[in-house]
Amino acid sequence: MKIAITVDELILWDGTPMPPGYTASTVMDGMLRALREHRVEGVYGFAHTSPVADRPDDREVLERWCAAGHHLGNHTHHHACLNWVGAQRYCDDVRLAEDVLGDLLEAAPTRYFRHAMDMTGPSEARRGEVEGFLRAQRYTTAPITAWFGDFAWTAPYARALHAADRDAAAMLRTSFVEAAVARLHDHAEAGRRLFGADLPLIWLVHGTALAQDVLGEILQRFTDEGVELIPLDEAMRHPVHRVHSPVTPLFRNHLERIALAAGDEVPAPPPEAVAQVITSGLAEGEDPMAVYDAILRRIVDRVDGTWNWSWA
Ligand SMILES: [Zn+2]
């Protein structure tokens, strides 16, 4: 199996809970170490830029990523889903990201763009308008064809470390690594079913506290299972990453959208496993998704968008 590693949100969304002692800078240190130890070079990171505009000192984190030989692609400024705003507003947001990161984006060998949430809008018309703009700006859209919902661990892991609950933290680290491996296989199998051949996959991990702590372990597991890590350019040469998958209002990545259109699906993780993670350390009666809804609502407000979201 061949995969290209990509990292989104090298600086996380505003309001994302962090464990004590963890910052975007420590996460960057951990991820760079893991990539170096596994000799993974030239990884594309997709960082939305509003955190850097809000806290210019954080730009240093992204500069360090590039200085280590990795690259940055455009991931919009606010990370607003294309389902929430019109095409014009979305394209303006792509330009805003250039204003903040211009020189670092220009330094990348290929001009890649990644949609926020890897979602391509509610209609082919809106998506087409954006894709036309991106093409005119010489961007290539880099979709996601394997992910494991890693953001779902951010709040529970912060809760566990704030409470110094070692058992919970250990459970979360283990389940994170296991989910990364299991979901990679789920996507690879779906690719085989849909296309009758092994696809090179574009794998996503976010710049979270857990990535700081266990990205190296995940890469080791991948290597042990014979996964070959390839450059994004190589994965992008496969037609699966060049075609436009049909739009859907659902929260699905590129491969999942193709599967959906073909009447297939990439299996969802077992509900009981998800529940164990998201409810870990949660107060009685608290909604485990409230913290993530609040993050998204903050984005919607900043872009004057229309709230329209489902985790289903
Ligand atoms: Zn993102």
Task: Please tag this protein with its features.
312 residues; alpha/beta; TIM Barrel; two-stranded parallel sheet; binds zinc ion
General description of the model:
By secondary structure, the protein is α/β, with parallel strands linked by helices. It has one domain (2-302): Glycoside hydrolase/deacetylase (TIM Barrel). The chain is 48% helix and 9% strand. It contains twelve helices and seven strands. The chain has helices spanning 24-37, 50-54, 59-67, 87-106, 124-136, 154-162, 166-195, 209-224, 232-236, 254-261, 271-278, 290-302, and strands at 2-8, 44-47, 71-74, 112-113, 140-141, 201-206, 228-229. Strands 1, 2, 3, 6 and 7 form a five-stranded parallel β-sheet that branches. A two-stranded parallel sheet has the order 4-5. Strand 4 (112-113), helix 5 (124-136) and strand 5 (140-141) form a beta-alpha-beta unit. The protein is globular and about 50 Å long. The relative contact order is 0.19. Bound molecules: zinc ion. Residues 8-9, 75, 79, 116 line the site of zinc ion. This is Polysaccharide deacetylase. Pfam families: Polysacc_deac_1. GO terms for molecular function: hydrolase activity, acting on carbon-nitrogen (but not peptide) bonds.
